[in-house]
Design brief:
The complex is a heterotrimer of chains A (411), B (131) and C (377).
Chain A: H1 3-9, E1 13-14, H2 25-31, H3 48-68, E2 75-78, H4 81-95, E3 102-106, H5 111-122, E4 126-130, H6 140-146, E5 151-155, H7 169-179, E6 182-186, E7 205-209, E8 220-224, H8 252-290, E9 294-296, E10 307-312, H9 317-323, E11 327-328, H10 344-348, H11 353-356, E12 359-363, H12 370-389, H13 392-398
Parallel strand pairs in A: 1-11, 3-4, 3-5, 5-6, 6-7
Antiparallel strand pairs in A: 2-8, 7-8, 9-10, 10-12
Helix pairs in contact in A: 2-8, 3-8, 4-5, 8-12
Chain B: H1 5-12, E1 27-34, E2 39-47, E3 53-61, H2 64-77, H3 82-86, H4 90-97, H5 104-130
Antiparallel strand pairs in B: 1-2, 2-3
Helix pairs in contact in B: 1-2, 2-5, 4-5
Chain C: E1 5-6, H1 17-27, H2 38-57, E2 65-68, H3 71-81, E3 86-90, H4 95-98, E4 105-107, H5 117-124, E5 131-134, H6 148-158, E6 161-165, H7 177-180, E7 184-188, E8 199-203, H8 230-245, H9 247-251, H10 253-267, E9 284-288, H11 294-303, E10 306-307, H12 323-327, H13 332-335, E11 338-342, H14 349-365, H15 371-376
Parallel strand pairs in C: 1-10, 3-4, 3-5, 5-6, 6-7
Antiparallel strand pairs in C: 2-8, 7-8, 9-11
Classes of the chains: A alpha/beta (411), B alpha+beta (131), C alpha/beta (377).
Chain lengths: 411, 131, 377
């Protein structure tokens, strides 16, 4: 193992790229001048400090737009994908309330999409939560059936945060366009990872997060189509920035950061995906080669290369995480992993609740190395083996007892 | 979530992991929890003719706190009479391991496991006596 | 070229060097505060340290600090989230308060921009159970400080909630939530030397229920979803701590500000200085050069290397004159010739002279200088 890898090991190995990504040092470099000498308020229209900041913000906007094939005028900045998702779904629903009262989404969406939809339900909207197939993908026929002339917006995520599967965006976009409903996609996990084109895919609204694509936290973007024009009711009012859709002083350094991050992603996406695919396969082969009863959740073909979600049967996920504390991984999404409920995403796939409890999410990214992967494989195999020796369930299975035949008391 | 040093110690060096022959007359087995709830504990006690627990073993499927709770009670029950063992309260376990509120259920499960093992042993004895 | 004199600190305060270092350092660490592994726990600890520092700046309990993306979001969260149907706001509030409610009722102000307490009492009536009152602590354009404690007495006796937008005041004057008596307080990092992109809504009582604007994860105790802007929040904490330490020095800015105003009156005896007789922020001056449009002043000052503004940054692109000055009864002519000069931690005494020289030159060029100015300049 190289000296550099050893040094890195003084910190745990970061394998949680779906929770957040490190800010790329190139992005940090681009941002720093805007914390120091170029500190102006981009809305100060009458002096140099303001113009300088505004120019930087607009460059960032162009870079974001370029990544998704949009016009810069169609990109507004927000505080992150949570805000973008809230604004897209609630904003479009509120604006169209008089004519349309229906929203379509999917059971495996990010919590902020589901919570926005639940809130709309409390306010009298109807929401259809589409199930997913066992591979995590939506059934297009079901989606087509669900969309009616009362549907204001269809919100389907581009890439799932827990299982990394890629939804058929172009097909969904075509259905929405044909049915006259707006198509919103939460692309927080997709932007910079897979090619996205708002026009080719008929996407009307798209949420992007800075810190999921090696940019800074505290910034996101919402793409809002201009032709045909999507109108929405703002959630945050005030100075009228972002064409009235989102008020508040734009954080110049963060806009610069997300822009730079998008530019780097656009440049390096293809090569990076290939490299990650190699690492991902190495990780999976390493684990499945040495452990029995290991199951990957979610489709392996329609999936970003930087994600694995694996159930290690008969070993509880949280206990496993403790056994591999040199690896920073998650047992579900970051927002919910503090709770004891098994992942609703895995449940929606039809994964047994027993198996859902044994799952880990392994997220690979730009700074993951081969050595880290090899180290991770050894560690996971070691910990799973040790914990299975300690597991009463594993023991029963070895004895040929069918665990499902036992009447568990529960508690 | 930060685990206490005691939880980490029991997790990394679990005491008395293993299995007794389930059918033996001096062994009581408690199997509590459910895979669907994310934790299952198997606690076994070996009881002397005088009714004193001579040995104990466990296997646990669960988080670090669940493993630590069951490891701890295998230590605690040794040398105790059945009555004394059955009187161990989950609060003592939780306090000893400094479990956070979200992990209290692990200590409850450990208490249940002791009671179940004791009950299983007594059931065996009773049926033996009835024969 | 970048002007060397920046006197627009109420638009955005230059980031403190210590903040820039802390933010840069935080940017180098990955970690989502919601993650349970070491990276996540470290990010969580940094966030909580910053929360304590921000709370300390305003004498609040850390648990009652809700981090937001900035002052605008904090104001929107307060007004929309408090669940009160009726909303009374002063006529000089920031656009983010005026715009946060569909139909706010306006509390008038006097000629200095101070809220009319009798009018407020009348508006409130006897029953305030369904009412939110929002009055800012210090105005962004004039720096005039509102009698928030007196407003609080009224709201409390009527059962109304009180929100106070302290975005401009915090870090410039001492702010104590309990002494103010407000139920909610808005803060913005970049107005006190932190980075843009972070702010907070501070609650006086943890039991106050807020309907969140942003829904999703359980961040900020379910009051505000979204991954925390950790570097921004860390910087906010550093900026708050430094601002608290340097309140004495900041108070001293009034000496330069007062000198600026004395000389301005010599240069243009007909100049109006808004709120000069009232308690004001030590760093802010809002003054007119009669007969010279605000925009012309700002542009020509910019050419002379001095950055100031014509009103607040959000509206300085608009043609409409300041709603603040109009509410104070200023004529269109006065409002149209007003500029705002605002000093900060990085200001130097010579900055005031640079401003005065450029302003005097402009006054002379436009023939607006008084006789005193001719000799003084």
């Amino acid at each position: 193992m190289s000296a550099e890898t050893k040094k890195k090991l003084e910190r745990p190995i970061y394998l949680d790229y779906q929770a957040t990504t490190p800010t790329d040092p190139r992005v940090v470099q681009a941002m720093l001048p805007y914390f120091t000498e170029k500190f102006g308020n981009p809305h100060s229209r009458n002096h140099f400090y303001g113009w300088e900041a505004e120019e930087a913000v607009e460059k960032g906007r162009e870079q974001v737009a370029a990544l998704i094939g949009a016009d810069p005028k169609e990109v507004i900045f927000t505080s992150g994908a949570t805000e973008s998702n809230n604004l897209a779904i609630k904003g479009v629903a509120y604006f169209n309330k008089a004519r349309k009262d229906h929203v379509v989404t999917v059971a495996t969406e990010h919590k902020c999409v589901l919570d926005s939809c639940r809130h709309l339900e409390q306010e009298g909207f109807r929401v259809t939560y589409l199930p997913v197939k066992a591979n995590g993908l939506v059934d297009l026929d079901q989606l087509r059936e669900a969309v009616t002339d009362k549907t204001a917006v269809v919100s389907v995520m581009a890439v799932n945060n827990e299982i990394g599967v890629i939804q058929p965006l172009a097909e969904i976009g075509a259905i929405c366009r044909e049915k006259g409903a707006f198509f919103h996609t939460d692309a927080a996990q997709a932007a910079g990872k897979i090619p996205l084109d708002v026009n080719a895919m008929n996407i009307d609204l798209m949420s992007i997060s800075g810190h999921k694509l090696y940019g800074p936290k505290g910034i996101g973007a919402l793409y809002v189509r201009r032709r045909p024009r999507v109108r929405l009711t703002a959630l945050i009012n005030g100075g009228g920035q972002e064409r009235g859709m989102r008020s508040g002083t734009l954080p110049t350094p963060l806009c610069v950061g997300i822009g730079e991050a998008c530019a780097i992603a656009a440049e390096e996406m293809g090569a990076e995906a290939e490299r990650l695919r190699g690492l991902r396969d190495r990780l999976l082969d390493g684990v499945t080669g040495r452990l029995a009863e290991v199951y990957v959740n979610g489709d392996m073909e329609h999936r970003i290369p930087g994600n694995l979600n694996i159930s290690f049967a008969y070993v509880e996920g949280e206990g496993l995480m403790m056994g591999i504390k040199d690896l920073a991984v998650s047992s579900g999404s970051a927002c919910t992993s503090a709770s004891l409920e098994p992942s609703y995403v895995l449940r929606a796939l039809g994964v047994d609740v027993e198996l859902a409890h044994t799952s880990l999410r392994l997220g690979l990214g730009r700074f993951t190395t081969v050595e880290e992967i090899d180290y991770a494989v050894d560690h996971i195999v070691e910990a799973v083996t040790r914990l299975r020796e300690m597991s009463p369930l594993w023991e029963m299975v070895q004895e040929g007892i069918d665990i499902k035949s036992i009447e568990w008391a529960g508690h | 979530m930060a685990y206490s040093d005691k939880v980490i110690d029991h997790y990394e060096n679990p005491r008395n992991v293993g299995t007794f022959e389930k059918g033996d007359q001096d062994v009581g087995t408690g199997l509590v929890g459910a895979p669907a709830c994310g934790d299952v504990m198997k606690l076994q006690i070996k009881v002397s003719a005088e009714g004193v627990i001579e040995d104990a073993k466990f296997k646990t499927f669960g988080c670090g706190s669940a493993i630590a709770s069951s490891s701890l009670v295998t230590e605690w029950v040794k040398g105790k009479t059945l009555e004394e063992a059955a009187a161990i309260k989950n609060t003592e376990i939780a306090q000893h391991l400094a479990l956070p509120p979200v992990k209290i259920h692990c200590s409850v499960l450990a208490e249940d496991a002791i009671k179940a093992a004791v009950a299983d042993y007594r059931k065996k004895k009773n049926s033996e006596a009835a024969e | 070229m970048r002007p060397s004199v920046y006197l627009d600190c109420n638009a955005t305060m230059p980031v403190r060097p210590q903040v820039a270092v802390a933010v840069a350092e935080a940017l180098a660490h990955p970690g989502n505060p919601s993650s349970v592994h070491r990276f996540g726990r470290l990010a969580r600890r940094r966030t909580e340290d910053a929360r304590e520092r921000v709370a300390a700046l305003v004498g609040a309990h850390p648990a009652n600090v809700v981090f937001t993306s900035g002052g605008t979001e904090a104001n929107n969260l307060a007004v929309r989230g408090c669940g009160r149907r009726r909303v009374l706001v002063s006529a000089v509030e920031h656009d983010s308060i005026l715009g946060a409610h569909a139909a706010p009722e306006i509390i008038p102000v006097d000629a200095d921009g101070v809220v009319d307490l009798e009018a407020l009492a009348a508006l409130l009536g006897d029953e305030g159970d369904d009412t939110l009152v929002s009055v800012m602590l210090a105005n962004n354009e004039t720096g005039v400080i509102q009698p928030v404690a007196a407003v609080a007495e009224l709201t409390r006796s009527r059962g109304a909630l009180l929100h106070c937008d302290a975005v401009q005041a915090a870090g410039k004057i001492s702010v104590d939530l309990a002494a103010l008596g407000a139920d909610m307080l808005s803060l913005s990092a970049h107005k006190l030397g932190g980075a843009q992109g972070a702010g907070a809504l501070v609650l006086a009582d943890e039991a106050l229920e807020l309907v969140p604007l942003l829904r999703g994860g359980g961040q900020e105790k379910y009051r505000r979803a979204g991954t925390e802007n950790v570097p921004g929040i860390v910087g906010f904490g550093v900026a708050a701590a430094i601002a608290a330490d340097e309140l004495g020095r900041t108070a001293g800015l009034s000496v330069w500000r007062d000198r600026l105003e004395r000389r301005a009156r010599e240069i243009a005896p007909a100049s109006t200085i808004f709120g000069a007789a009232r308690a004001r922020l030590p760093n802010t001056s809002c003054l007119t050069l009669p007969g010279v449009a605000s925009d012309v002043q700002v542009m020509s000052l910019d050419l002379a290397g001095v950055a100031v503004s014509a009103g607040s940054a959000c509206s300085s692109g608009k043609v409409a004159p300041s709603h603040v000055l109009r509410a104070m009864g200023a004529t269109a002519e006065q409002a149209g010739s007003a500029i705002r000069v605002s000093l900060g931690w990085g200001s130097e005494e010579g900055d005031v002279d640079r401003f005065l020289d450029a302003w005097a030159a402009l006054a002379r060029r436009t023939g607006r200088a008084g006789s005193a100015a001719a000799s003084a300049a």
